[in-house]
């Protein structure tokens, strides 16, 4: 019987000292009922910083793994980046769950370590489960961590599969409009002064726009250094998450049958959308020239922005007439 008790203790999740107060249901002394007024207005982000994993068993024939982590709470699920061929992955990656503090602490927080495998297709995804951990968070410990600008650290053992998953959890209160779901509209308008790449002294430019792992591509404008696109692109998600990283632009010159030439890159902060629904953006490229855009936020249930957000006068070659007047609706 003593041997069985020892084995049960070893199999139980191990939590760092700083995290002990944050797991398991609240005790009578710090019950959420003692502070009910905090629940209705406590909206924000539960930030899970995925640090590292170690000590787990490889599932591939080459004794390696391509690990990634699924973080879930209630109906929300986020996926980390895949780390190639390693049994000691280091992520240092933030995965964010949005909502009310009440809802996020009511549902268990689950982290599942998986091995990406292109030859498998389980539940419509190329993944094989390695192990998982599950914790229940204490709301008031999270509130204190937020006020102290610190996070709660965990080092959890993944049960029978072996291995340890290290991560931290922090609560960040935010205004309701920042955790709203919706659509970020990016209007690619035009560019000026692009670098000529062809013998003719022109380029055939197109733009790739990337945000939060999603990439969109514009049409190609033929023979122009001042192209007009007038195209609209959509990125869906939570406003806070969409604004957490810059919008990346990569401009290229299309070449039939050859590798496309690089015309420059740019990264644009979208934080101005925190205080407004429509912003003007200009992006100087890393080589030469500038790209001009507009960005607009449409919360779920709200009316979309005007379809004709910008008007440009095009030349027969597809470029912009320098003498034309741009009008914005």
TrEMBL record:
Name of the molecule in the record: C2 domain-containing protein
Polar residues: compositionally biased ranges: 25-34
Query: Which residues lie within the region annotated Disordered?
Result: 1-38
PANTHER family, per database record: C2 DOMAIN-CONTAINING PROTEIN
**Cited Gene3D superfamilies:** C2 domain (2.60.40.150)
Q: Which organism is this entry from? A: Haptolina brevifila
Where does the C2 domain lie? 27-150, 161-283
Q: Does the keyword Metal-binding apply?
A: yes
Is the keyword Disulfide bond in the record?
no
């Amino acid at each position: 019987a003593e041997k069985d008790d020892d084995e049960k203790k070893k199999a139980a999740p191990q939590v760092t000292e700083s995290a002990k107060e944050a797991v398991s249901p609240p005790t009578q002394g710090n019950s959420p009922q003692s502070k009910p007024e905090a629940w209705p207005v406590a909206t924000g982000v539960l930030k899970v910083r995925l640090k590292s994993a170690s000590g787990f068993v490889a599932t591939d024939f080459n004794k390696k793994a391509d690990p990634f982590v699924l973080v879930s709470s209630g109906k929300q699920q986020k996926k980390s980046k895949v780390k190639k061929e390693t049994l000691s992955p280091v992520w240092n990656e933030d995965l964010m769950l949005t909502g009310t503090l009440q809802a996020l602490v009511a549902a268990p927080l689950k982290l599942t370590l998986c091995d990406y495998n292109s030859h498998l297709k389980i539940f419509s995804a190329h993944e094989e489960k390695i192990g998982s951990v599950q914790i229940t968070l204490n709301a008031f410990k999270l509130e204190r961590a937020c006020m102290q600008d610190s996070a709660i650290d965990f080092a959890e053992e993944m049960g029978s599969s072996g291995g340890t998953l290290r991560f931290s959890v922090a609560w960040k209160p935010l205004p309701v409009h920042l955790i709203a779901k919706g659509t970020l509209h990016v209007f690619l308008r035009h560019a000026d002064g692009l670098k000529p790449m062809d013998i003719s002294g022109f380029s055939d430019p197109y733009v790739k726009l990337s945000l939060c792992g999603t990439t969109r591509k514009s049409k190609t404008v033929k023979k122009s250094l001042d192209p007009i696109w007038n195209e609209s692109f959509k990125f869906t998600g939570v406003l806070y998450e969409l604004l957490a990283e810059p919008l990346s632009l990569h401009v290229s010159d299309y070449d039939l049958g050859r590798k496309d030439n690089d015309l420059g890159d740019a990264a644009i902060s979208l934080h101005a959308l925190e205080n407004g629904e429509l912003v003007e953006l200009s992006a100087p490229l890393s080589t030469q020239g500038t790209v001009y855009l507009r960005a607009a936020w449409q919360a779920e249930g709200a009316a979309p922005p005007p379809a004709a957000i910008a008007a440009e006068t095009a030349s027969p070659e597809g470029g912009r007439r320098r003498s034309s007047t741009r009008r914005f609706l």
